[in-house]
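As a warm-up, study this chain.
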Amino acid sequence: MLSIDDFQPVTLDDKQIFDQHYAKYPPTHSDNVFTTLISWKDYAKCYYAFLNDNLIIMIKIEGNFRFRPPIGKRDKDLFRQVLKLAKKEASDYPFGLIDVQTKDWLSKNFPNLKFISNRDYFDYVYLTSDLAELPGTAYGKIRNRLNKFMRNFAYTIEKISKENMDDIRKFLKRWCLWKDCESDPLLESERKAILYSMANFFELELSGLAIRIDGNIEAISVFERMSPNTAVVHYEKGSPDYDGIYKAINAEAAKLLQKDFKFINREPDMGLPGLRKAKMSYCPHHMIEVFHVDKQNMVF
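Now compare it with the structure written out below.
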């Protein structure tokens, strides 16, 4: 029977284990990508266990445990074990990040479970060609701002590498000063996640682009393969001094990714109104909907 003692903390050394498992069972939501799990460890401590060829993820946030559905071949008995452990050990929302396909399967096998939609954590997924080409009237305003940026600023594009990593770290320090990261707990957690990702950029096998203006890095995009047809963009940051620079780094990253990936997952908006408006303005192709089960509705 699954117990909390079966779980161990996720470390950077575990990347190969996750890579091997995800080669068979790619993650459907960006929060299960290894880079996300390890980089946000100061905010959400991640633990994992393997049982019956399934990966089981447990998250600890402010002392509260939360469990996610096993990733692997569907196993009713294993799901029951995870549900029992979640009900025993976790609080508030003990079982979450449940995608639609898993929800449908659970509804058939555990019909008494009641699911709550978690809109703040829906992933935004776009056609890579749309972000690269910005076609039609729906993207008219974005194209106009991008064209204005291109007229006003002479810039170059370069891949993130060992040679420019110091410049990128300097840019990120400036970005946090602009955003006053320390005044906002979420921004401070994101700052730590970005710095961890960049410090372990090559070990995590990440890729990225940077925009340089007048000799300085002024925007970056960091991404990686999520599944055979989807790339995930983890971070996109730009200087407030250059209007339209976010449109530029977004388009340039999509142009690079277009040759290998049909879709780009740009992660959730976490319920932030400004971020939601920005993500919706790019006309997502579809959303990765997720649900959770609260403790009162854990009847199985």
